[in-house]
Amino acid sequence: MQKISSIFKRIYPWHYVVIVIALPIVVSFAIILFKPLFLAKMAYFQNKSAVVLADQVADSQPGTLVIPNVTPTPEPTPSPTPTPTPKPMGSGSAKGQVFYGRGTPNNKFGMYVHNIVDDIKASAKLINSNGGDWGYILLTMDITDRNKSSWQDMFGVASKNHLIPIVQLFNNGKCDPKKMEFDDLAKMLNSLKWPSKYRYISVFNEVNAKDYWCEKIAPAEYAQALDKAIKVFGDKYFIMPAAFNSSARTQDRYLSEDAYLIAMNKAVPGIFTKIDGWATHSYPHPDFSGDINNLPANYGTRDTINNYTWELSLLKNNFGVGALPVFITETGWLHREGQEKCKQYSQAGLLSSATTSARFKDAYINYWLSDPRVVAITPFIFKSEDPCAEGFAWQKKDGSWYPQAEMLMAIPKTAGSSN
């Protein structure tokens, strides 16, 4: 007690002034120093609790994908800002060349063309008209095709006419991923001289329909096949999955695309983080005659020329995949001209070629060309001898044009690049 008393005897009044001034400063520094540590600790325990809760929900229903209903916290409405320059996209683990990173102009116009040299040449008159250059063509390839000479001829014509190929693979009745010889196919494709720096490949077609997958619905098999293709083709190619039939609801011969995608990701977790872009079939329904501005009851975005916005939301909401570059590899209205010999579609419900031309113009001007996510638009089909596909054609059998072709040639285009 005497020691303590002696200490206080040595405290002078000015000491109290120093203490009063210094104490708040010390407390403030302490708060600044320890606040981040406290918040980090709180976040750790919150995240740990969330993980435990998610595990409990998943364990309650083994073997099923649980998607809890979560109400997101509303975000404040942002102030209007200028439209930013598109950032690089398509950077999945397949390491395909990042499209927007090339920094060159892009001509979005293209055509789905049969593998016929004369059709490839003629299609360039549409695709690269009115200021356009280096637009796109979609060509189909059987995965068993090893005819290097034929493909080099087509690529040579495409190069001469400044056309960038998108190769859509067909599985030719092969549905066992273990028996798909992607290695040999990759060797053949690697041996070709491509017209462009970017090598675009879409792996198969509308696989959520039995028609295109050995008369069965097998999303797990397709996911494994896609995963194998991504690994084999590697970083030399820009890989996209098959375009799906987005308008089909689940029934005997179809599985709804949303359910199909979830099943794919369950079979191969993270499969959609590995792709470089998104192929889509943007058909106007019902009956290839729909008007996006006047949809019938029970029809939605998935049934329209803007279907890819619905698909991209599925990828984001279910798998956390950000916006991918979109390639519209098939689209089109069915006009009655040229369909007279087809029994598959009712002639009474078909549109005139003048109406399909007006619908196409609306789609290009008001939807596709103004959307920075859309890279290429290749309508089905440039020209066809099939009596049930002639109604989609842009060029008639005699070489003259349907009205939609004249309309397309009048639209100003961008001089793109092969780099």
TrEMBL record:
InterPro entries in the record: GH (IPR017853)
Listed SUPFAM superfamilies: (Trans)glycosidases
Biased composition (Pro residues): 71-87
Transmembrane region(s): 12-34
Region Disordered, residue ranges: 64-97
Keywords: Membrane, Transmembrane, Transmembrane helix
Name of the protein: Asl1-like glycosyl hydrolase catalytic domain-containing protein
Annotated source species: candidate division WWE3 bacterium CG08_land_8_20_14_0_20_41_10
